[in-house]
What we know:
Elements: E1 10-11, H1 17-27, H2 32-37, H3 44-62, E2 64-67, E3 73-78, H4 87-97, H5 105-117, E4 125-132, H6 141-156, E5 160-164, H7 170-174, E6 179-185, E7 192-198
Parallel strand pairs: 4-5
Antiparallel strand pairs: 1-2, 2-3, 3-4, 5-7, 6-7
Amino acid sequence: MARLSKPGMRVAERDEFPHLAGVLVRAFEADPFHRWLFPDDGSRPRRQRKLFERVLAIYDRHGVIYTTEDASGVALWDPPRDGGPSLLELLSFVVRVLPVFGARAPKIAQGMAPLSSLHPDEPHWYLSILGTDPDRQRGGVGSALLQPILEHCDEDGTPAYLEASHLENVPYYERFGFEVVAPLAMPAGGPVVYRMKREPVARS
């Protein structure tokens, strides 16, 4: 599995996962997708933390978790491979994550199921989650976690793909060369998720 080491970006250590889960809770506090996942204001932070802890554990086995030197941001990437996630990986994700949503699990599963089937057909780097501690936002943390992977994509001729869960984030990713493929509305009046793809830039 591809693991890169670049200035400003490093692979996260397991003992940092609780801290990084906290970073993600704070980063996604006002995110409309997460407010749809967890509509109750009182229980949202606790459920978010449980969700992120489980997703970090999954990506520790089946993906790559990058952070910055000061652990103020975190990016969960799936490196390119043929065939996409295995059945075992998908089942592991469902079994570990869906219980976090309680009675809303069937609705969440209905909304999220298409996301896994709409990835590009060719091998690609998939950015599952990118979050920065609010007090470090607009300070280049996100760029430090994006740019090295995207440079690697250009060197290898590999696309990158993500889902932006907030319309305000679309212009941010467009700065790095991502383009909206298509929006996807979550069920029962849920938010719109913007599927975005970046083609590799040919280097002369």
